[in-house]
Amino acid sequence: MTFRFTTRCLTLALVAGAAAPLAAQDTLQPPDGVRIGIEYRPGVRPAIVILPGRGLDSARAILTRDLDYSDRFEVIALAPGDSAALAANTGGRTVNYALFRTLGAEYALEVVADGPGATLRLHDIAGGVVRREQRYTFPAPFDVGFRMAVHRAGDEVVRWITGTPGYAASQLLFVADRKLYRVDSDGGGFAQVSAPGEEVLSPAWSPDGRRFAYTRFGAGTGSIVVQTMASGQKAIAPGTSVALNITPAFSPDGRLLAFARSGEDGTDVYVADVAQNCCVQRLTVGRYADNLSPTFAPDGRRIAFVSTRAGTPQIYVMAADGTDQELFAPFDFGATGPSNAPEWSPDGASVVFHRDVSRAPQVFVLDVAARRVRQLTSAGRNEDPTWAPDGRHIAFVSDRSGRRQLWVIDSVTGRIRQLTFLGQARLPAWSRRFTDPG
Amino acid sequence: MSVATFRSSITLLTVLAVAACGGKPAPEEPAPQPAPTQPAPTPAPAPTQPAPTPAPAPTPAEDPAAVAARTTAAVLAEVGAVVHFDFDKWDIRPEDRATLDRKAAILGVNGGLRIRISGHADERGSDEYNLALGNRRAAAVKTYLGNKGIDASRVEVVSYGEERPVSMGHDESSWFENRRAEFEATAGAMNLRLP
Fold first, then answer.
1. Tens-place pLDDT, residues A175-184
2. CB contact set of A300 (below 8 Å; sequence gap of 6+)
3. Residue A313: its chain B contacts at CB < 8 A?
4. What CATH number corresponds to the domain at position B75?
5. For the domain with range A171-430, which CATH number is right: 3.40.1190.20, 2.120.10.30, 2.40.37.20, 2.30.29.30?
6. How far apart are CA B125 and CA B162, in angstroms?
7. Closest CA of chain B from A301, distance in Å
8. Using CA atoms, how far apart are residues A269 and A275, in angstroms rounded to an integer?
9. Do the domain assignments include residue B87?
10. Measured distance CA(A117)–CA(A149) in Å, rounded
């Protein structure tokens, strides 16, 4: 882990250094190689301060929270009347580096109003230089798209420093009171998605974030609907107009939809071509066992799923054509609790799922290469996990506050925060990162 | 009782659905109830007397239609009797066998009657797994009725998972109430006879 992280950062520094002259707006100062090892000290998060300034308070607040929620930094908060704030107000290349050095900051982010948007300038405090500068266009605050535009900029700032982008420009779909809702990764932008009277289960995003699938639950039966987010246009997925069809999951290219169908022979995993609206194929034949909750590996070649073939539901894996089915997450027969709701991580290295421990579900992560599991939660009931686009954070349902709500945990540090504050919430699905407007 | 009310629109939908998904071409049989295709070996212990229990005091001048309606209601009440399941299980519990045997007998003497079995789960366990579990439970009941001679085309299976609890508590007795199969007449629920 440590080794890989360091290697990646070194590689990035080299690539970024080489590419710098090509990027027109890019004012990257090639970092000197000596300091790289210091910046990426394993387990130590660099401290960053967001400089105060005129206007753009809401953008600055969103960026501050995005950097905090990335769990990659110690975000240093400045009180508005702080002398440090005053000292910083000059901005530009006259930032008082010495002062921020005494605060322990390694980076300072300056947000400067710039026409219909802002210029984000990342100062390297130790080096006393501007590391990166980029202009972003933001819609007016309170306009549709403002928050997401700022989140995209925040994700870039994370990338400038760590080499991998943040996950702020993303949304979660979830079910509350039988309706489908969406919420931004920071808890903002909360809105109902489902039509009145529609009962929704098991939402799932398409990889490009433009569509989603869900079970439209009826009188004990359900079709899988594929809906386009922007237009609201809906289509019934092929092969799902009869019986009870549940737990949809898109393939990484967005062309296929895997799902489970419950019928008199039990529940089995199917896959259908939603691009050509055809070609329903059955992948499992359970007979006396149920198979459900498919989830594609990011290379599209394997599908993890839940099966009751050993008695209790456990996590299995198969090739995307249904062959080579085998146990995926090891368990002790007769001792390990039921395991459900797997979701393959965006980087392919892990599968998150929940497993009952003393009859309470807890979030576990399976290391795909080592075939080892690690328990992430222990307080209350914690279930139905879903990966953030960074492959590091995980949203899940927890009753630790007394009611079932969505929470987000950082699988590296274990830091946890509550995402929703509703009557109850369940069955979350986290989108991939929204990289372009819309 | 209200669960088992007859609704013609649902009947039609059900017949269509059964015809659409069932392997065999289900004969559409609305009002004229044909005799069951097989003699339907009625394993019911009930005696074959024409006047069974529910008729209270034999009022000589009672309207035959009223008697028929009362009998039908009594039959539907028996059809609608719920059976329960053990935690994370779908086996028919021994104490529920008599209830199901009685339903099989009723289906045996009322050849036009069709039912829908809905399987339910308690709140424990994964929401999505519980849909599969509810389906298992409903299918297990259907298999039991099938073993008693009831044709598969007359029995529809659906699952509500944990989506429709009848008891809102978070304790053993509530969970027991919620782990259940419900029964609903979907067609041929008029002029029913007792076995």
1. 999 999 999 9
2. A251, A252, A253, A256, A320
3. 126, 129
4. 3.30.1330.60
5. 2.120.10.30
6. 9
7. 24
8. 19
9. yes
10. 10
Question: Are the Cβ atoms of B159 and A220 closer than 8 angstroms?
Answer: yes
- Residues in A touching B160 (Cβ below 8 Å): 220
Q: Is A238 on the interface with B (CB under 8 A)?
A: no
Q: Is B38 near chain A, with CB under 8 Å?
A: no
Domain annotation covers residue B97: yes
Q: How far apart are CA A411 and CA A407, in angstroms?
A: 12
What token pair was written down for B183?
A: 């029964």
Predicted confidence at residue B165, as pLDDT, reads: 95
Per-residue confidence (pLDDT) for residue A268, from 0 to 100: 96
B168 touches chain A (CB under 8 A): no
Rounded CA-CA distance A71/A61 in Å is 16
Q: What is the pLDDT of residues A9-31, one digit of tens each?
A: 333 333 333 333 333 322 233 33
Tens digits of per-residue pLDDT, A161-177?
999 999 999 999 999 99
What are the residue ranges spanned by the domains of chain A?
A: 2-162, 171-430
**Secondary structure (DSSP) of A241-310:** SSSEEEEEEE-TTSSEEEEEEEETTEEEEEEEETTTTEEEEE----TTS-EEEEEE-TTSSEEEEEE-TT
Question: CA-CA distance, A425 to A177, in Å (whole number)?
Answer: 8
Domains contained in chain B, number: 1
A264 in reach of chain B (CB within 8 A): yes
Residue of B nearest to A246 (CA): B128
Domain annotation covers residue B34? no
- CA distance linking residue A28 with residue A131, whole number of Å: 5
Q: Does A221 touch chain B (CB under 8 A)?
A: yes
ipTM: 0.84
Q: Which residue of A has its CA nearest to B21?
A: A242
Residue B115 lies in a domain: yes
Cβ(B104)–Cβ(B149) under 8 Å? yes
Taking only the tens place, the pLDDT of each residue in B102-143 is 999 999 999 999 999 999 999 988 999 999 999 999 999 999
CB contact under 8 A, A264 and B88: no
CA B188 → CA B18, B67, B175, B183, distances in Å? 14, 18, 33, 14
CA distances from A60 to A51, A120, A171, A189, B109 (A): 9, 10, 20, 17, 75
Q: Which residues of B touch A246 (CB under 8 A)?
A: 128, 131-132
Read off the pLDDT of each residue in A367-394 and give the average, rounded to a whole number. Answer: 96
CATH fold of A2-162 reads Rossmann fold (3.40.50)
Residue whose entry in the numeric block shows the structure tokens 């359900």 = A222
Which residue from B minimizes the CA distance to A308? Answer: B129
Q: E strands along B17-113, which residues?
A: 83-84
Which domain, by its residues, includes B12?
Answer: 2-20+64-187
